[in-house]
Write a structure and sequence with these properties.
This protein has 11 helices and 10 strands. By secondary structure, it is of the alpha/beta class. β2, α4 and β3 form a beta-alpha-beta unit. The radius of gyration is 19 Å and the shape is globular.
Length: about 325
């Protein structure tokens, strides 16, 4: 990796972070992890040896330190799968922007796999083939968006969005890729024109399962359940397991003062029913578990900040998955 100059010495980085993160991890998750491992079944559909990370969780470190520092550190922690949230870093690191091929080389050199990427929905409309090109350069099997299918929250609006996703998904399939949509809470609301119809159900029913896949953000699904009751997040996966290749596994701590019902916290520090969810989805398909914490850059102390949260959350996730 000598061809990619680093502005931050990794040995200094590890000295600054490793002791703190390991100590905090042991203190915060050992008990919870032991309980989780005992309570989960022996056969799980989320493999513990493929735990991933959504880079949005550590966006501050990617921007400031660059992929050349961050990716080796994630490999050291134990992450195997990388989900991107953009392909840029601070230009001062290399004196220019990093290229996709340089990112791919860093992944390969550190034993990491690009599992997917969040792309703005407008990019699929304006530059679909370019986004598929990027996915193939990085070697990722999935490419998706974290945007809602549409802001037109009617049955007709979601049907039209499904038609659009079907076109993009067919193009992805033709390139050997899987297109996916990542939910927030709003997709679980009811249609404004048909209050008995859940928007997510419209999207699921009208997208072609051969070409359009879903990344279930488990936290936001439970927020959706809190705000618009009447569904079980695990049932969606259990009923169509092969449509859910990816999960976002972020934790939430119950808080009635929050309109969402939960605060986003480090994995293992909340009380979302992850043991029950993992048991209830069944073993019929394999799903990559990806840690995400939107609030991780605010984690103190800083350093290690978001990378400390990443390490502690990895330890807790591995404990849950046995």
């Amino acid at each position: 990796m000598s061809h990619i100059r680093k502005s931050f010495d990794r040995r200094d980085f590890l000295r600054a972070t490793a002791g703190t993160t390991v100590a905090l991890a042991a203190a915060s998750v050992t008990g919870a992890a032991a309980t989780s491992a005992a309570a989960t079944p022996s056969k799980l559909s989320i493999p513990k040896d493929r735990i991933g990370i959504q880079l949005y969780s550590i966006r501050d470190k990617v921007s400031a330190l660059g992929f050349g520092v961050v990716l080796p550190e994630l490999a050291r922690i134990g992450y195997k799968e990388i989900e991107f949230a953009g392909y840029t870093q601070n230009t001062s690191i290399l004196g220019r922007q990093i290229t996709l091929q340089e990112i791919r080389t860093l992944l390969d050199d550190n034993g990491l796999t690009a599992v997917g990427s969040h792309v703005g929905i407008g990019n699929f409309r304006s530059n679909l083939q370019g986004e598929l090109d990027a996915a193939q350069i990085l070697g990722m099997p999935h490419v998706g968006t974290a945007n809602a299918p549409t802001n037109v929250n009617t049955v007709a609006g979601y049907r039209a969005a499904a038609d659009e996703f079907n076109v993009w998904g067919a193009a992805a399939t033709a390139r050997g890729l899987k297109l996916y949509q990542h939910n927030h809470a709003g997709e679980f609301a009811f249609a404004t024109d048909q209050p008995s119809v859940r928007l997510y159900d419209v999207f699921l029913k009208n997208t072609d399962p051969r070409h359009v896949y879903l990344e279930l953000d488990i936290y936001w699904a439970y927020v959706g359940q809190y705000r618009w009751p009447g569904f079980d997040p695990a049932a969606y996966v259990r009923n169509q397991p092969y449509r859910y290749p990816l999960f976002h596994m972020k934790d939430g701590d119950a808080n009635s003062a929050n309109a969402n019902g939960f605060d986003i916290v480090e994995f293992g520090a909340g009380d979302l029913p992850y043991e029950k969810f993992v048991r209830d989805i069944g073993p019929r398909a394999s799903h990559v578990g990806i840690w995400e914490q939107d609030t991780a850059p605010n984690t103190q102390p800083n350093p290690p900040g978001s990378l400390g949260a990443a390490e502690r959350s990895f330890t807790a996730l591995k404990g849950l998955l046995g």
